[in-house]
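Quick question, first post here. What does this chain look like in 3D?
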Amino acid sequence: MGKKTEQVQAAITGALDDLDDASITVRMMKALHLEGDSNTNEKAYEIRELLESPGIDDYPSLDSLEDSWRVLSNYYGEWDGKPLIDRVEIPDRTAGSPIENFQFHVESGFYPPPEIMILIQRCFQKYLAMGGDISLDEAFFGEPYKKRTSFAYRRHQIWRYAAFHNLEVVLHQGHLQQTGQPKKSLEQLAEDYLSSLFSGDDAGIDVDTFLRGYRRWKRDHGFTT
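> Answer (accepted):
Ran it through. Tokens below.
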């Protein structure tokens, strides 16, 4: 991000911070202003609170999204006494990020809650409005793109080891209990995984390197098996 762009963003943020008016207009300006990492449930929840506020009907486009969600929520119904599609709650540290939330709902055949769609739209709007001065990583996450610190890279690291853990380690243990066959070593399981269709881009990684990463992933996520 260029110095001039940073100055403009800082000026906007400062002006909004100086506003203490609790009116729906000021709340809307603050909720829809994105700075830094915007892919957070805190920001999504702020937008949700705005959508559920009295006076939102003064802004037809936002109010229409909330009205449409009520219709969809009734259509989707409930599961075990709770709405089938959960909206963002704070604090909820178990929920995925807004981008993951968006992806999960669309892949599952559901419309995402309106606060998620608005947040994603605002990030794209910020990216386009900057006229090429920022990357998509900066628009969504507030940081210039660097592969090993990017959101996509970190999520891929989590997915690759979770997939190996579930497909090979856990399923193998369950299979042993049912069949009584000899147990494979972790190295053998890794070889099987890396030569399978599930490994994707990991197919070229050697077993030792992959298992070092897997053990770090287990430690970081508290797995003991």
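The longest helix spans residues 151-179.
The CA atoms of residues 106 and 112 lie 7 Å apart.
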